[in-house]
């Protein structure tokens, strides 16, 4: 309900030219100052409790040569102020209701020479700022091409940053923690350690960018509602400590094709002296449009297992044969080629997964490698790579559908596009119709390899429009989408809650590709998850990958208890139990937590948080009075303190604690854990030792 909505217009003229405009957050903690420089360049500056946190920073856009840029020569033509306070209901999320509460200042700027107008809209929340550019319909500005957005974020000092290299095609990096001035020196190492593609400079980083000042102020920079625009990276001017927006180019080097009326995404700055407030902020969701899907009854959180980890580890294969079919899809007769004997997506094996899912109360089973095309799926820039409707000869779609149905299990479709966005769009309707006909409600999509059309990037405007097209088309078919390798989310799941998952960061798969840093999941909530949930795929119980595939020496850099904690720490309405059923059968008492943990939450409390070091989160089940607590710990062993004061006063509870044992070591003894039970209430304070790479999970059940 909108509590109040005040708008007043102030007609202003060039009289205001040298004046600055101020805006305060509803609680007065934040102050934004907007000013025009003498040459008419717009600037902003941000204060938190009277401390400057973003120094005076320029705003504007550089346009391609045929147009004068939108950088300077502006005067203030109008200003509009609003206050907004609305509480909206989530379809799914970390809580059932979210308050959207801000003060707004919209400034219309007129460019003297061209008489063009732009609006810069600021929304100041109690946790930070959002602002965007708006381009109204007007005589002198209809079509324009962006050469570069010139938004600055001027830092007040040499802050600590948790960063990944600016790359137009992947976010699948470990994070580096360093001072801003150290980024340049560490850049090459950060790139070569990872499967990177194109970086634009030696100080270019991706958002969401997490920063910490020497005075203990946490600052997060990201974007919201990235639609029909290019993804923003940040380029650091490391002499002046100023981040400059850097948009992802297309094949021609352009950054965006716009037509008025239109808007840019929101640029967001969340700040607090308490890191937990960064996790609790809902600025990103609030800056997105309300849900556009009228009937959402078909959208529901899912806990799933998958015919997946065995291929990721190299134990099995996606491909049916080791022969490379010489012709493109639809012509090869797969029944005549020699099977490689490692094809996991076969009817018999899939039924075993369905049995396991049904036995342990999962909602769904994902199967990858079910369809023709995996023999030469990437690395060859093959356009017509998959058709998304033709199963391999050993995968009986109808039989599997019927079997799953009889067991109350849904199947999750897999659509690996291999980066060929054109080919996917070509087949999309038929692919979705095929899903509906065979009982699939959700698809995991993927964009491995170079984007086709060649020269485009995973994060350029036209490819972002492809991801958006898939989400909206899927909504027409009542299909949920979990996109891997697509652009990192920016809160669009508020508008399209059928976007139930995204990878778009370094997920668990990298634990089988050489391993990830042991503190990775203490950084992700502050970076990747600021934009929306991640299909991180936790739950690995066997850390020694050679046990699955003797040719793979990778080690999972986490303890078993840490893996359990991730079901609470890494919020997602789509949670996978990623390991093989065999590995769960070895540790059924620990597996119990994965079975019990919900995927739908009523509310969330952030108990402890320090990016790169530890995160402890408590969430209340949407369907009961039970609570779940999760912790992920970085490299320093520590005692986590868990204050249960969020429990209902006067009620009694039993806590089942799944924690690391005295001798747990993420490298040498990761599977040591203990399960203890305690009577607790809202006065209980628990202290739990977490070793490097460790963590814990707690189920707190109401005793009735
Ligand atoms: C990369 C995805 O992240 C992974 O989950 C998937 O199994 C492979 N691509 C194959 O599509
Ligand atoms: Ca991936």
Explain what you see.
It is a single chain. The protein has three domains: 3-286, Beta-galactosidase, Chain A, domain 5 (Distorted Sandwich), CATH 2.70.98; 302-504, Aldolase class I (TIM Barrel); 544-569 and 588-704, Golgi alpha-mannosidase II (Immunoglobulin-like, Sandwich). It is 15% helix and 34% strand. The strands form seven sheets. Strands 1, 7, 8, 9, 10, 13, 14, 16, 17, 21 and 22 form an eleven-stranded antiparallel beta sheet that branches. Helix 6 (397-406) links the parallel strand 24 (364-367) and strand 25. Bound molecules: 1-deoxynojirimycin and calcium ion (CA). Calcium ion (CA) binds next to loops. Calcium ion binds at residues 172, 484-485, 503, 507, 509.
Q: What's the pLDDT, averaged over the residues?
A: 95
Distance between the termini: 35 Å
By DSSP, the count of extended strands is: 37
Number of domains: 3
Bound molecules: 1-deoxynojirimycin, calcium ion
Give the structural class.
Answer: alpha+beta
How does the major sheet shape up? 11 strands, antiparallel
Q: Poorly predicted ranges (pLDDT <50, ≥5 residues)?
A: 1-17
